[in-house]
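Field log, afternoon session.

UNIT: design team B
ACTIVITY: writing a sequence onto a fixed backbone
BACKBONE:
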Protein backbone atom coordinates (compact mmCIF):
# COMPACT_ATOMS: atom_id res chain seq x y z
CA UNK A 1 0.00 0.00 0.00
CA UNK A 2 2.51 2.61 -1.15
CA UNK A 3 -0.02 5.41 -1.16
CA UNK A 4 -0.36 5.40 2.69
CA UNK A 5 1.82 8.16 4.22
CA UNK A 6 4.84 6.66 6.02
CA UNK A 7 4.02 8.39 9.33
CA UNK A 8 0.52 6.95 9.30
CA UNK A 9 1.88 3.52 8.42
CA UNK A 10 4.29 3.67 11.34
CA UNK A 11 1.56 4.63 13.78
CA UNK A 12 -0.68 1.84 12.60
CA UNK A 13 2.20 -0.61 12.90
CA UNK A 14 3.11 0.54 16.40
CA UNK A 15 -0.47 0.32 17.60
CA UNK A 16 -0.73 4.03 18.47
CA UNK A 17 -4.16 4.18 16.82
CA UNK A 18 -7.03 2.77 18.77
CA UNK A 19 -9.11 0.15 17.02
CA UNK A 20 -11.94 2.69 16.70
CA UNK A 21 -9.73 5.41 15.23
CA UNK A 22 -8.03 2.93 12.93
CA UNK A 23 -11.41 1.70 11.66
CA UNK A 24 -12.52 5.25 10.96
CA UNK A 25 -9.26 5.96 9.18
CA UNK A 26 -9.55 2.85 7.02
CA UNK A 27 -13.16 3.73 6.18
CA UNK A 28 -12.01 7.16 5.06
CA UNK A 29 -9.35 5.56 2.88
CA UNK A 30 -11.98 3.25 1.35
CA UNK A 31 -14.19 6.22 0.52
CA UNK A 32 -11.21 7.96 -1.03
CA UNK A 33 -10.43 4.92 -3.16
CA UNK A 34 -14.06 4.72 -4.30
CA UNK A 35 -14.01 8.43 -5.12
CA UNK A 36 -10.87 8.02 -7.22
CA UNK A 37 -12.45 5.10 -9.07
CA UNK A 38 -15.61 7.11 -9.84
CA UNK A 39 -13.57 9.90 -11.36
CA UNK A 40 -12.63 7.57 -14.20
CA UNK A 41 -16.27 6.89 -15.14
CA UNK A 42 -17.68 9.13 -17.88
CA UNK A 43 -20.96 10.69 -16.87
CA UNK A 44 -23.15 13.04 -18.84
CA UNK A 45 -22.21 16.62 -17.93
CA UNK A 46 -25.25 18.39 -16.49
CA UNK A 47 -24.04 21.74 -17.84
CA UNK A 48 -23.97 20.55 -21.46
CA UNK A 49 -26.60 22.73 -23.10
CA UNK A 50 -26.74 23.57 -26.82
CA UNK A 51 -28.99 26.19 -28.38
CA UNK A 52 -29.76 26.01 -32.11
CA UNK A 53 -31.40 29.02 -33.76
CA UNK A 54 -32.97 28.58 -37.19
CA UNK A 55 -35.01 31.50 -38.43
CA UNK A 56 -37.70 32.25 -35.84
CA UNK A 57 -37.18 28.88 -34.19
CA UNK A 58 -34.90 28.31 -31.20
CA UNK A 59 -34.34 24.85 -29.71
CA UNK A 60 -32.34 23.74 -26.68
CA UNK A 61 -30.62 20.36 -26.53
CA UNK A 62 -28.76 18.40 -23.87
CA UNK A 63 -26.27 15.61 -24.48
CA UNK A 64 -29.06 13.12 -23.84
CA UNK A 65 -31.22 14.79 -26.50
CA UNK A 66 -28.42 14.61 -29.05
CA UNK A 67 -27.81 10.93 -28.34
CA UNK A 68 -31.41 10.22 -29.39
CA UNK A 69 -30.75 11.75 -32.81
CA UNK A 70 -29.01 10.42 -35.91
CA UNK A 71 -25.62 9.79 -34.29
CA UNK A 72 -22.33 9.10 -36.11
CA UNK A 73 -19.23 7.48 -34.59
CA UNK A 74 -16.01 7.57 -36.63
CA UNK A 75 -12.39 8.71 -36.62
CA UNK A 76 -11.07 12.17 -37.33
CA UNK A 77 -7.61 13.77 -37.25
CA UNK A 78 -6.55 17.39 -36.94
CA UNK A 79 -3.29 19.28 -36.70
CA UNK A 80 -2.87 21.65 -33.77
CA UNK A 81 -1.28 25.10 -34.15
CA UNK A 82 1.87 23.62 -32.61
CA UNK A 83 2.09 21.12 -35.44
CA UNK A 84 1.02 18.19 -33.29
CA UNK A 85 -1.23 15.70 -35.07
CA UNK A 86 -4.10 14.44 -32.95
CA UNK A 87 -6.39 11.54 -33.90
CA UNK A 88 -9.45 10.28 -32.04
CA UNK A 89 -12.79 8.54 -32.45
CA UNK A 90 -15.67 10.97 -32.06
CA UNK A 91 -19.39 10.50 -31.56
CA UNK A 92 -21.84 13.24 -32.46
CA UNK A 93 -24.70 14.52 -34.60
CA UNK A 94 -24.14 15.65 -38.22
CA UNK A 95 -24.23 19.44 -38.43
CA UNK A 96 -26.57 19.06 -41.41
CA UNK A 97 -29.12 17.41 -39.13
CA UNK A 98 -28.96 20.25 -36.62
CA UNK A 99 -29.19 23.16 -39.04
CA UNK A 100 -31.64 21.55 -41.46
CA UNK A 101 -31.99 22.04 -45.19
CA UNK A 102 -30.64 25.55 -45.72
CA UNK A 103 -29.07 27.06 -48.86
CA UNK A 104 -25.43 26.15 -49.39
CA UNK A 105 -24.44 29.81 -49.21
CA UNK A 106 -26.15 30.40 -45.84
CA UNK A 107 -23.89 31.43 -42.98
CA UNK A 108 -23.75 29.30 -39.83
CA UNK A 109 -22.38 31.10 -36.79
CA UNK A 110 -21.01 29.02 -33.93
CA UNK A 111 -20.47 30.60 -30.52
CA UNK A 112 -18.43 29.08 -27.69
CA UNK A 113 -19.06 29.33 -23.95
CA UNK A 114 -16.12 31.74 -23.61
CA UNK A 115 -17.66 34.13 -26.16
CA UNK A 116 -15.47 33.12 -29.11
CA UNK A 117 -17.38 32.71 -32.37
CA UNK A 118 -16.66 31.65 -35.93
CA UNK A 119 -18.64 31.39 -39.14
CA UNK A 120 -19.05 28.42 -41.45
CA UNK A 121 -20.60 28.25 -44.89
CA UNK A 122 -23.45 25.75 -44.83
CA UNK A 123 -22.19 24.19 -48.05
CA UNK A 124 -18.97 23.16 -46.33
CA UNK A 125 -20.88 21.48 -43.51
CA UNK A 126 -23.01 19.60 -46.06
CA UNK A 127 -20.01 18.41 -48.11
CA UNK A 128 -19.38 14.69 -47.51
CA UNK A 129 -16.69 14.17 -50.12
CA UNK A 130 -13.97 13.76 -47.48
CA UNK A 131 -15.99 13.07 -44.33
CA UNK A 132 -18.95 14.18 -42.23
CA UNK A 133 -18.91 17.35 -40.13
CA UNK A 134 -20.45 16.57 -36.76
CA UNK A 135 -21.04 18.24 -33.43
CA UNK A 136 -19.20 15.79 -31.20
CA UNK A 137 -20.05 15.13 -27.55
CA UNK A 138 -17.88 12.04 -27.03
CA UNK A 139 -14.19 11.48 -27.70
CA UNK A 140 -12.85 7.92 -27.65
CA UNK A 141 -16.08 6.82 -26.00
CA UNK A 142 -15.96 9.34 -23.15
CA UNK A 143 -17.95 12.53 -22.67
CA UNK A 144 -15.68 15.50 -23.28
CA UNK A 145 -14.92 17.98 -20.47
CA UNK A 146 -15.81 21.66 -20.83
CA UNK A 147 -12.50 22.29 -22.56
CA UNK A 148 -12.38 21.17 -25.37
CA UNK A 149 -16.04 20.09 -25.08
CA UNK A 150 -18.75 19.66 -24.08
CA UNK A 151 -19.57 20.04 -27.77
CA UNK A 152 -16.97 20.34 -30.51
CA UNK A 153 -17.12 20.53 -34.31
CA UNK A 154 -14.98 17.89 -36.01
CA UNK A 155 -14.86 16.03 -39.32
CA UNK A 156 -15.01 12.23 -39.21
CA UNK A 157 -15.34 9.35 -41.63
CA UNK A 158 -14.31 5.84 -42.62
CA UNK A 159 -11.08 7.19 -44.15
CA UNK A 160 -10.18 9.18 -41.02
CA UNK A 161 -10.24 12.66 -42.64
CA UNK A 162 -7.52 15.15 -41.70
CA UNK A 163 -8.65 18.72 -41.04
CA UNK A 164 -7.02 21.80 -39.53
CA UNK A 165 -7.76 22.67 -35.92
CA UNK A 166 -8.85 26.16 -36.98
CA UNK A 167 -12.05 24.57 -38.37
CA UNK A 168 -12.75 22.76 -35.12
CA UNK A 169 -14.78 25.13 -32.92
CA UNK A 170 -14.79 23.88 -29.35
CA UNK A 171 -16.85 24.57 -26.22
CA UNK A 172 -19.82 25.16 -28.55
CA UNK A 173 -22.99 26.37 -26.86
CA UNK A 174 -24.89 28.12 -29.68
CA UNK A 175 -25.41 27.52 -33.41
CA UNK A 176 -27.25 30.10 -35.53
CA UNK A 177 -28.33 29.88 -39.15
CA UNK A 178 -27.88 33.33 -40.69
CA UNK A 179 -29.32 34.26 -44.05
CA UNK A 180 -32.07 32.49 -45.95
CA UNK A 181 -34.09 29.98 -43.96
CA UNK A 182 -37.34 29.61 -45.84
CA UNK A 183 -40.34 28.07 -44.14
CA UNK A 184 -42.05 25.07 -45.73
CA UNK A 185 -44.79 22.75 -44.62
CA UNK A 186 -46.67 19.54 -45.44
CA UNK A 187 -50.46 19.57 -45.44
CA UNK A 188 -52.30 16.33 -44.67
CA UNK A 189 -56.03 16.17 -45.46
CA UNK A 190 -58.41 13.37 -44.50
CA UNK A 191 -60.98 12.91 -41.76
CA UNK A 192 -59.12 15.84 -40.15
CA UNK A 193 -56.39 18.19 -41.38
CA UNK A 194 -52.88 18.53 -40.05
CA UNK A 195 -50.25 21.01 -41.17
CA UNK A 196 -46.70 20.02 -40.27
CA UNK A 197 -44.27 22.94 -40.09
CA UNK A 198 -40.66 22.74 -41.19
CA UNK A 199 -39.38 22.61 -37.61
CA UNK A 200 -41.59 19.59 -36.80
CA UNK A 201 -40.60 17.71 -39.94
CA UNK A 202 -36.86 18.27 -39.58
CA UNK A 203 -36.96 17.43 -35.88
CA UNK A 204 -38.72 14.21 -36.88
CA UNK A 205 -36.15 13.10 -39.40
CA UNK A 206 -33.37 13.98 -36.97
CA UNK A 207 -34.21 10.87 -34.96
CA UNK A 208 -33.59 7.40 -36.49
CA UNK A 209 -36.61 6.10 -34.56
CA UNK A 210 -38.86 8.00 -36.97
CA UNK A 211 -37.17 7.41 -40.31
CA UNK A 212 -36.91 4.76 -43.00
CA UNK A 213 -34.37 4.46 -45.82
CA UNK A 214 -35.18 3.05 -49.26
CA UNK A 215 -33.21 2.32 -52.42
CA UNK A 216 -34.48 3.82 -55.66
CA UNK A 217 -33.17 3.22 -59.17
CA UNK A 218 -34.18 5.68 -61.86
CA UNK A 219 -32.70 6.39 -65.30
CA UNK A 220 -29.83 4.01 -64.62
CA UNK A 221 -28.83 5.66 -61.32
CA UNK A 222 -29.36 4.17 -57.87
CA UNK A 223 -29.68 6.31 -54.73
CA UNK A 224 -30.80 5.87 -51.15
CA UNK A 225 -33.52 8.12 -49.77
CA UNK A 226 -34.32 8.73 -46.12
CA UNK A 227 -37.58 10.12 -44.79
CA UNK A 228 -40.82 9.48 -42.95
CA UNK A 229 -42.93 6.39 -43.81
CA UNK A 230 -46.07 7.44 -45.70
CA UNK A 231 -48.40 5.24 -43.68
CA UNK A 232 -47.15 6.82 -40.46
CA UNK A 233 -48.12 10.26 -41.76
CA UNK A 234 -51.49 8.99 -42.97
CA UNK A 235 -52.21 7.85 -39.40
CA UNK A 236 -52.50 11.49 -38.34
CA UNK A 237 -55.55 12.17 -40.50
CA UNK A 238 -57.28 8.88 -41.43
CA UNK A 239 -59.61 9.14 -38.43
CA UNK A 240 -59.99 10.98 -35.15
CA UNK A 241 -57.24 9.04 -33.39
CA UNK A 242 -53.86 10.80 -33.49
CA UNK A 243 -51.07 12.03 -31.18
CA UNK A 244 -51.25 15.38 -29.42
CA UNK A 245 -49.91 18.11 -31.70
CA UNK A 246 -47.49 19.22 -29.00
CA UNK A 247 -45.58 15.95 -29.55
CA UNK A 248 -44.66 16.86 -33.13
CA UNK A 249 -43.68 13.76 -35.11
CA UNK A 250 -44.72 10.92 -32.82
CA UNK A 251 -45.77 7.37 -33.68
CA UNK A 252 -48.41 5.18 -32.06
CA UNK A 253 -49.09 1.95 -33.95
CA UNK A 254 -52.76 1.94 -32.98
CA UNK A 255 -53.33 5.37 -34.61
CA UNK A 256 -53.29 3.83 -38.11
CA UNK A 257 -56.75 2.61 -39.15
CA UNK A 258 -56.05 -0.82 -40.67
CA UNK A 259 -59.70 -1.62 -41.43
CA UNK A 260 -60.14 1.63 -43.32
CA UNK A 261 -56.86 1.15 -45.22
CA UNK A 262 -58.03 -2.30 -46.35
CA UNK A 263 -60.86 -0.64 -48.31
CA UNK A 264 -58.28 0.73 -50.74
CA UNK A 265 -59.06 4.43 -50.69
CA UNK A 266 -56.94 6.71 -52.86
CA UNK A 267 -54.08 8.76 -51.47
CA UNK A 268 -53.18 11.73 -53.65
CA UNK A 269 -49.70 13.22 -53.35
CA UNK A 270 -49.51 16.70 -54.82
CA UNK A 271 -46.52 18.91 -55.61
CA UNK A 272 -46.38 22.67 -55.15
CA UNK A 273 -46.82 23.12 -58.92
CA UNK A 274 -49.99 20.99 -58.98
CA UNK A 275 -48.46 17.75 -60.32
CA UNK A 276 -49.88 14.71 -58.52
CA UNK A 277 -49.78 10.94 -58.26
CA UNK A 278 -52.07 8.50 -56.44
CA UNK A 279 -51.46 5.31 -54.48
CA UNK A 280 -53.89 2.93 -52.83
CA UNK A 281 -54.14 2.76 -49.04
CA UNK A 282 -54.02 -1.04 -49.02
CA UNK A 283 -50.75 -0.92 -51.00
CA UNK A 284 -48.87 1.31 -48.56
CA UNK A 285 -50.49 -0.04 -45.36
CA UNK A 286 -47.81 -0.46 -42.65
CA UNK A 287 -45.11 -0.59 -45.33
CA UNK A 288 -42.01 1.49 -44.57
CA UNK A 289 -40.88 1.21 -48.22
CA UNK A 290 -43.11 4.13 -49.22
CA UNK A 291 -41.71 7.34 -47.78
CA UNK A 292 -41.76 11.11 -47.86
CA UNK A 293 -38.05 11.64 -48.39
CA UNK A 294 -35.99 14.55 -47.08
CA UNK A 295 -32.49 13.21 -47.83
CA UNK A 296 -30.78 11.53 -50.77
CA UNK A 297 -27.59 9.55 -50.08
CA UNK A 298 -27.49 11.03 -46.59
CA UNK A 299 -27.68 14.67 -47.71
CA UNK A 300 -30.74 16.93 -47.62
CA UNK A 301 -32.55 17.21 -50.95
CA UNK A 302 -31.65 20.14 -53.18
CA UNK A 303 -34.60 22.56 -52.86
CA UNK A 304 -33.98 23.82 -56.39
CA UNK A 305 -34.19 20.43 -58.15
CA UNK A 306 -36.28 18.25 -55.82
CA UNK A 307 -37.93 20.57 -53.33
CA UNK A 308 -37.68 19.98 -49.59
CA UNK A 309 -39.72 16.77 -49.76
CA UNK A 310 -40.16 14.01 -52.31
CA UNK A 311 -42.40 10.93 -52.46
CA UNK A 312 -40.46 7.77 -53.40
CA UNK A 313 -40.69 4.03 -52.83
CA UNK A 314 -38.20 1.16 -52.67
CA UNK A 315 -37.11 -0.90 -55.67
CA UNK A 316 -38.34 -4.08 -53.97
CA UNK A 317 -42.00 -3.01 -53.98
CA UNK A 318 -44.16 -5.28 -56.13
CA UNK A 319 -46.87 -3.12 -57.68
CA UNK A 320 -50.28 -4.40 -58.76
CA UNK A 321 -50.80 -4.77 -62.50
CA UNK A 322 -51.39 -1.41 -64.09
CA UNK A 323 -50.16 0.56 -61.08
CA UNK A 324 -46.97 2.53 -61.61
CA UNK A 325 -46.96 5.66 -59.43
CA UNK A 326 -44.08 8.02 -60.12
CA UNK A 327 -41.94 9.96 -57.72
CA UNK A 328 -43.36 13.34 -56.70
CA UNK A 329 -40.84 16.15 -56.29
CA UNK A 330 -41.66 19.40 -54.45
CA UNK A 331 -44.25 17.50 -52.39
CA UNK A 332 -46.61 19.87 -50.57
CA UNK A 333 -49.86 18.02 -49.84
CA UNK A 334 -51.19 14.54 -49.13
CA UNK A 335 -54.96 14.05 -49.40
CA UNK A 336 -57.00 10.97 -48.52
CA UNK A 337 -60.02 10.10 -50.67
CA UNK A 338 -62.29 9.10 -47.82
Amino acid sequence: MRWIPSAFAAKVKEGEFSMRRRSLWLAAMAIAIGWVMVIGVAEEPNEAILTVVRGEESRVYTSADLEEMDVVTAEGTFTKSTGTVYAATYTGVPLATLIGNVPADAMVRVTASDGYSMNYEAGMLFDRSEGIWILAFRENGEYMPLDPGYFRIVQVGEDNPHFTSSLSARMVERIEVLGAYEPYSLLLKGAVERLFARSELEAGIGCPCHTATVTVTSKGETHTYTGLPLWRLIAYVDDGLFPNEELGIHYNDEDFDDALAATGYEITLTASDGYSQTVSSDLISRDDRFIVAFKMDGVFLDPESSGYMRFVYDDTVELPEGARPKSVKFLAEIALGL
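LOG NOTE: The radius of gyration is 27 Å.
NEXT ACTIVITY: expression trials, pending approval
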